[in-house]
Design brief:
The radius of gyration is 26 Å and the shape is globular. The chain is an alpha+beta fold. Helix 5 links the parallel strand 3 and strand 4. The protein binds S-adenosylmethionine. S-adenosylmethionine binds next to helix 5 and helix 15.
Amino acid sequence: MILGDIWRVSCEYGEDAIRPLPWYPGNLAWHLNFSRKELRKNQALESFHEFLKHESEVGNITRQEAVSMVPPLFLNVQPDHHILDMCASPGSKTFQLLEMIHQSKEPGLLPGALVMANDLYVQRCDLLIHNTKRMCTANLIVTNHEAQNFPDCSLAKDYSEAYKDTCKPQGLEFDRILCDVPCSGDGTIRKGHEMWRKWNSGMGNQLHLLQVNIAMRGIALLKVGGRMVYSTCSMNPVENEAVVAELLRRSGNSVELLDVSSELPELVRRPGLSTWKVQDRGCWFQTHDDVPHDKKNVVLPSMFTSSNGTEGSHTVRGDVEVNIDDRSSLRNCNIEETSKNNHDMDGLPINTNKKFDCTSNILNSKFPLHRCMRIVPHDQNSGAFFIAVLHKLSPLNGCQIQGTKIQHPLAKGITAQPQKEPESETRLYKTSLTRQQNIVSKVVDSAEVLGRQQNLSMDNQTSNDNSTEVEMVFNGVESSRAESGDSMRLQKQSRWKGVDPVLFFKDEVVIKSIISFFGIKESFPLRGHLVTRSTDNARRIYYVSKSVKNILELNTEVGEQLKIVSLGIKMFVSIKCSKCMMFFTDSRFPSNTQFFFTGIHILLKS
Ligand SMILES: C[S@@+](CC[C@H](N)C(=O)[O-])C[C@H]1O[C@@H](n2cnc3c(N)ncnc32)[C@H](O)[C@@H]1O
């Protein structure tokens, strides 16, 4: 069917109309030379359009900008990897990562891997859940956190000892991290014509610190030996190379920027930049201006030159040319010197209104930023993307970690207390976080995405419903709820307002009934893999993989540090009829029953 369609469209519209992307492994990605509008309107393409729609709905096809598929390819994902997608919505790359972990397993067999997909905004998490539902995976957890404060769920020392000999995780650590940060999005300028009107250099400046903080948190959560991909769909070096330079500077010898020029050789890419201009105006300095001026060690934005007046820098009317190779990634500079030396070509001082008081601490690092990759539209008729691949060589030291996360106040007493952060940095960090969030929501929100969100049928498994749990009766037998009842009630009070806690479903009577009704082999790992929500009257029961189960157990131990908005695969749904709870089975049952296909491939393997 697909080959026939492709052949027909190619004959009619020329070979270039549909062609495989040469750089995507296994010919699994194809480029389509038609806009959405053409596909919808052109009668001749009708059956092909129908085919695309159907295959997209069932999860066989995902339609997305070609270059947006590049970053996950550089993660070199294996089927047992724990992967964190820090800024995941709308989820096209999450979907790709899920495809990768399932690829090498027979359908129905679950990989040992796990994808944790996170986004800051609840509505965008809903969009992510909606878009990944087609994957029908038991190996996904969706969380809702500020990526720069993503919890590590570390067990306190005494717990940790007890866990040592089990293979269970003692904290969150990931083999692979995708850090596809919020950005100005100017790489989409060929498609999003609005961008031409909106773009200004301040957009990148405003996002730079947030991007650094998110990526630093990623490095802290990355296993030694693990890979992290930093990516944006922006061409602005302030959001790209300047961020990478700052990551390398902050993490010292713990992280290296990988040369991946031999990977995906068919992909046309350009080397990262070593010099760029930063417009010395805009919100960046405003962000810092509300920090008391008597505070020492104020961190200056890393996209600016250290400007110690040495060779290699010159200023051009408000622009500072930055040369990373010559000097540093622009840190803790002496502001007096900065003021002295930042004069434009006419000798007029730049930034005379800036009152920073910084210590002089200029590093002269030579970062191999050419190893970053720039994909530009005119090389292979695509959108633009920036990608950097980082490899963790050793753990970050205490100081480096300090800056990567502010502990959630609720987590106090549950995990080991982090070392106290220096006041000035903490204040600066907190102030800028609030500002960054405001900025990000302005820069990132697109009317199109919000419109799509409103039309979504949401299935985010969360509820504000505080009604008491329904009496659980199955096949006329009172369930033996007593044992699990107390813990259920205890867990009902979630620390995350509006998000019901995830509970392991332990009702033996119900589980036995399910096993006998569906003829599931006793050897099939059902017990301990079924979860539900505390206030879910419909009693939706989800199936989770072993990897997800382990993380859930860890999360319970650490006092629910993870705000989980969705997980696993919906497998059974019970409905309350007059006398009993029935588990939905198939269409031969009365009209109030329904079959959940989503979990069938797993059950069939039992
Ligand atoms: C570039 S988009 C990610 C695209 C996504 N990786 C994909 O391929 O579909 C950036 C995402 O980051 C989210 N975001 C913005 N600020 C964030 C933060 N501080 N922490 C986590 N996510 C954030 C936005 O809501 C947005 O969905």
